[in-house]
Write a structure and sequence with these properties.
Blueprint (H helix, E strand, L loop, with lengths): L1 H4 L5 E2 L3 H6 L18 E3 L2 E4 L15 E4 L5 E4 L8 E7 L5 E5 L3 E2 L4 E2 L3 E5 L2 H7 L12 E3 L2 H14 L7 H8 L4 H10 L4 H11 L1
Antiparallel strand pairs: 1-10, 2-3, 3-4, 5-6, 5-11, 6-7, 7-10, 8-9
């Protein structure tokens, strides 16, 4: 199973904070990944020797960019959660990433799962930047999604959860001259997805 292969820890939404604080057997240990210098593009951003389907490649023009910053989205490529899209929501002090899945469907019973999180250990950064997938010559366990996929995903989440964002109040805040940092803070406090927040800020300035 992909979760086991990734050494990922599943958590229900109601227990996320408790599980975050627990001394997990993998996630409370520091690991210092050995990353090729030329793979590092920026903070939590890497150029990886895999193509857009997630398979290893030696052709540099096919290399992909993997962005693991908070607020970015990834899609799993295999296992019981194949094709599920998750949001990177945190990186703990040991360098491991937590990914939240809000729209996972049990394909056997065709039922939507409760929101849950998976941990991705930092050792995966070492493996991925050195061209290693789940098995030798195999796919990456996940890839970033395109902007189009992100938009479709967020629209699906909004419809399923009945989210109706009232942009008028944020526009009023802009009109009276409040800084975008204040508006961003207000939108996040109102539980607006960070991607939507940044899109609104970008289009309004």
């Amino acid at each position: 199973m992909l979760a086991k292969e990734l050494n990922l820890t599943k958590m229900t939404q109601n227990s996320e904070e408790k599980e975050e604080e627990k001394n997990d057997i993998f996630m409370d240990k520091q690991y210092y990944p050995k990353i090729p210098v030329d793979s590092i593009i920026g903070t939590n951003i890497y150029q990886i020797p895999f193509n857009d389907k997630g398979y290893p490649t030696t052709i540099k023009k096919e290399y992909q960019i993997l962005n693991l910053n908070i607020g970015e989205y990834i899609q799993l490529t295999g296992g019981p959660y194949k094709k599920d899209i998750g949001e990177i929501v945190s990186k703990n002090k040991y360098g491991h990433y937590r990914i939240k899945f809000s729209n996972s469907v049990n394909k056997t019973f065709n039922l939507k799962r409760k929101t849950f999180s998976l941990w991705m250990g930092s050792w995966w950064i070492e493996m991925i930047t050195n061209g290693k997938g789940i098995v030798p010559g195999g796919q990456l366990p996940f890839l970033n999604i395109t902007n189009e996929m992100k938009g479709n995903y967020l629209n699906t989440i909004s419809k399923k959860e009945g989210i109706n964002i009232d942009y008028s109040k944020y526009k009023k805040m802009l009109k009276i001259g409040l800084p975008t940092s204040v508006i961003r803070h207000k939108m996040i406090a109102d539980h607006v997805d960070t991607t939507i927040v940044e899109q609104f800020i970008a289009e309004s300035t």
